[in-house]
Amino acid sequence: MFAPNGSLTGSIFYNPVKLIFGKDSTSKIGEEIASRGFKRVIITMGGASALKNGSYQQSIDSLKANNVEVVAELRDIRANPEVNKVREGVKLARENQAEAILAIGGGSVIDSSKALSLGAFFDGDVWDVPRATPPVSKRLPIFTVLTISATASEMNNGYVLQDDEKQLKVAYMHPDNFPTVSCIDPSFQTGLPWFQTVNGVVDAMVHTLELYAGADGSEETALQLDEGLLRSLVNCGHGLQKDPENYNLRANVAWAATLALNGYSGFSLRGGSWLVHMIEHALSAIDPAVAHGAGLGVLMPAVIEYLATKIGKKEVYDRWAKNVYGVDGYKAGMEAWVKDLKTWGHPTTMGELGFKKEQIPHIAKLVCDVGCPHGFTPEDVAAVIELAF
Amino acid sequence: MFAPNGSLTGSIFYNPVKLIFGKDSTSKIGEEIASRGFKRVIITMGGASALKNGSYQQSIDSLKANNVEVVAELRDIRANPEVNKVREGVKLARENQAEAILAIGGGSVIDSSKALSLGAFFDGDVWDVPRATPPVSKRLPIFTVLTISATASEMNNGYVLQDDEKQLKVAYMHPDNFPTVSCIDPSFQTGLPWFQTVNGVVDAMVHTLELYAGADGSEETALQLDEGLLRSLVNCGHGLQKDPENYNLRANVAWAATLALNGYSGFSLRGGSWLVHMIEHALSAIDPAVAHGAGLGVLMPAVIEYLATKIGKKEVYDRWAKNVYGVDGYKAGMEAWVKDLKTWGHPTTMGELGFKKEQIPHIAKLVCDVGCPHGFTPEDVAAVIELAF
Ligand SMILES: [Fe+2]
Ligand SMILES: [Fe+2]
Fold it and tell me: In what residue span(s) does the Alcohol dehydrogenase iron-type/glycerol dehydrogenase GldA domain sit (chains A, B) (predicted)?
């Protein structure tokens, strides 16, 4: 998901997103929208943070200066976004003849906007968009103003959406559903609470590691780049713990998080593993209060243990341990992982996330309902989850 | 050149090139051209190598299968391409109403094609395209089949062209002049002569290092990525010396060379330095037989010495030495550089390139006629060149 499923013998790379990065980059968004001929936008956003950090007002000012009208607003998109909110957005966009979407927020706002983009022209319920054949061909162009770096949704063509009632969280990658322009102003992030900062850093690290898991060791360039991304995220994570308002550290995390899932980090790595994400999606489908990054961080070492011992990835993770942490063997790498998470005040066990061992079979079933990767059985998945307790 | 001139506080990233990478990727080129509505292409190419390695025949087969007509061929584009050949191409493309260009070759073929692309619609001599205001707005779409990895021209919007008579070699970056689709089949490169392989590896390393020179040390993500690219190029360079037909090593070099100058390696690095390239351009303007990578490799340590001592880049190059070669201090890094070049049978002095000390003032003048970077005087440039003897 969100990565070319290629190898050194066959990969396609294509990412047409225009990034405007840096201080006050949001001031350009109105011109980017207007110059492409769009006059009527629907704004999508989360809760109060876009109002507090200035991203909303800067966006509005830029739209006004370029005579772009806000015809509707879809507010209060939550973390782990839910399909009902997107249904609301589809209705709003249609009723108000929106010509484009301006997403102001983090991954959940942008993911919801991508579903909305396709749903607006889909003759059916937006939940069924991923199963449309052929894929939905018409879409509302998406512009984004990023306020939390983590998912890289600002520079890829995927989204994740859940249905609380069905306890289902599903990822979908549409070939053309890239944002047209994304503005990344790291200064919006200097005031982020620490736990959100860490969750973003961990999400980006896990994206890199899920992709890294697709290696057989011959992909020297991809592996070197991914180890570089991981070192930068670790270094900047430690830096931000001491100095959370440091603009440069925020900017380095932002760029690394975008690169972690915009196609570059996964190039030639066979699409990666994604087992960590699949299990985490089940956790937040059961309890939407579980932060995505929190679940991922807890599960990562358990997955490494399992991939190293059951699907032959020991050498790959030994290399990771050596090149990212300077330690010998994947087990020492896992220890370094847990140590950093503890230093950062991040949970490291399923118990800390509020889960009980009795729930393991149910979680494993939810994972395999969506699809067990690596030919795993629900029992294999259950064994991974058990390791994380 | 070829890189966003941005920093962590303000950068734009945009690269819409679609890459088709891997074995037999060339077989897709006809469909990529035809599906965009183009029926008449002009082929651009170098000498016999495209005929020998199969890239020409595969391209022709793919065009035929998709009913795309070859209306003209511009053959024998040399290394360090010259403007007269492009003038020929402009004439051919116009006379035959070419709708697109298919470049089959390495950087010089693709660079010439980019000049041709703009020249075909420019009301004046193609040599003057870089000085057109506003920039030339109409262009022939470019498709490429890459046969030598080095310049990254297959995935950027720049070209370098020279005028032998004027002894001028000029780089130009047009905002929209990206190839539409590039096919990279590393198997075309498994039979490359060793000196061409090394020149490509060194060119990619120097691109990364020119960009790296723009750092002030705060750009953790960019620096980690660039160090990763450099390590991969060094490792794969050594690997290819022992095993030149190894497909995976060729593929890793190919991907690293593309990344070295497609905008990623330079993101946030203020456009880099480009002093090495500017001096090398003067060398090959004087003697077109000097291979681009050969000149760069010789000049690199002299430039590092000068940037470290005269423009405050000591810490940056100390970091490079440590993270790429595991040695202390930039001087030890320069020694590692020279040692690798000697191992690879690459020249390491200006004398080996055929230059004499008496030519230093003339070379320095040519450099500064195009434009001295870093506020250097011709005397500073002369001092750098002297160090390379
Ligand atoms: Fe994620
Ligand atoms: Fe070069």
Answer: 16-186
Minimal CA separation from B250 to chain A, in Å: 10
Cis bond upstream, residue A361 (ω within 30): no
Any idea which residue has 């699409």 for tokens?
A271
Across A334-358, b (16+ Cβ under 10 Å) vs e yields: bebbbebbeebebbbebeebebeee
Structure tokens at B261: 């100058």
- Any chain B CB within 8 A of the CB of A322? no
Model confidence at A5: pLDDT above 90? no
- Global pTM reads 0.97
Please indicate, yes or no, whether residues B244 and B158 belong to a single structural domain of this protein.
no
Residues of B in contact with A175 (CB under 8 A): none
| B248 vs A379: CA distance, rounded Å | 36
Answer yes or no: is A6 within a domain. no
Cα(A11) to centroid of ligand 1, in Å?
Answer: 22
Structure tokens at B324: 């790429």
Determine which of B19, B155, B205, B221 to mutate to test the interface with A (most A C-beta atoms within 10 Å).
B221
* Contact check, Cβ <8 Å, A10/B23: yes
Task: List, in order, residues 6 or more apart from B110 with CB less than 8 Å away.
Answer: B103, B142, B144, B146, B151, B153, B154, B159, B179
CB contact under 8 A, B252 and A10: no
Residues A229 and A97 occupy one common structural domain: no
Residues A100-129: pLDDT tens digits? Answer: 999 999 999 999 999 999 999 999 999 999
Residues 6+ apart with CB under 8 A from A373: A273, A274, A275, A278
Which pLDDT band holds residue A3 (cuts at 50, 70, 90)? Answer: very low
Please state which of the ranges A250-259, B87-96, B321-330, B361-370 shows the lowest mean pLDDT.
Answer: B361-370
**CATH number where A279 lies:** 1.20.1090.10
| Structural domain includes residue A201 | yes
State whether B291 and B210 are in the same domain: yes
Whether B57 and B175 share a structural domain: yes
Q: Is A55 exposed, middle or buried (0-12, 13-18, 19+ CB in 10 A)?
A: buried
Instruction: Please indicate, yes or no, whether residues A50 and A152 belong to a single structural domain of this protein.
Output: yes
- Beta-carbon count within 10 A of B40 CB: 16
**pLDDT for B74-84, tens place per residue?**
999 999 999 99
Is residue B332 pLDDT above 80, yes or no?
yes
Q: What is the rounded distance in angstroms from the CA atom of residue A304 to the CA atom of residue A300?
A: 6
The domain total for chain B is 2
Mean pLDDT of chain A: 95
In chain A, residues with a C-beta closer than 8 Å to the C-beta of B15 are: 15
Choose the mutation target among B12, B220, B226 for the interface with A, i.e. most A CBs under 10 Å. Answer: B220
Characterize B71-101 residue by residue with b for buried, 16 or more Cβ atoms within 10 angstroms of its Cβ, and e for exposed: bbbbbebebbbbbebbbbbbebbeebebbbb
What ligand has the least distance to the C-alpha of A210? 1
A159 membership: H or E segment, kind and range: strand A158-163
Instruction: For residue A187, list chain B residues with Cβ-Cβ distance below 8 A.
Output: none
Of A14, A219, A232, the CB nearest to B220: A232
Domain of A34 in residue numbering reads as 24-184
Count CB neighbours of B312 within 10 A. 10
- Give me B69's structure tokens: 């007509």
Give the strand pairing for A158-163 and B158-163.
Answer: unpaired
Q: How far is the CA of A200 from the centre of ligand 1 (A)?
A: 9
Asked if the interface predicted TM-score (ipTM) of this complex is over 0.90, the answer is yes
Query: Does A21 contact B14 at a Cβ distance shorter than 8 Å?
Result: no
Last residue of a domain, one of A121, A149, A184: A184
User: Would you say residue A1 has pLDDT above 60?
Assistant: no
The band of B151, judged by pLDDT with boundaries at 50, 70 and 90, is very high
Encoded tokens for B281: 């351009």
- Same domain? B255 vs B376: yes
Same domain? A152 vs A61? yes
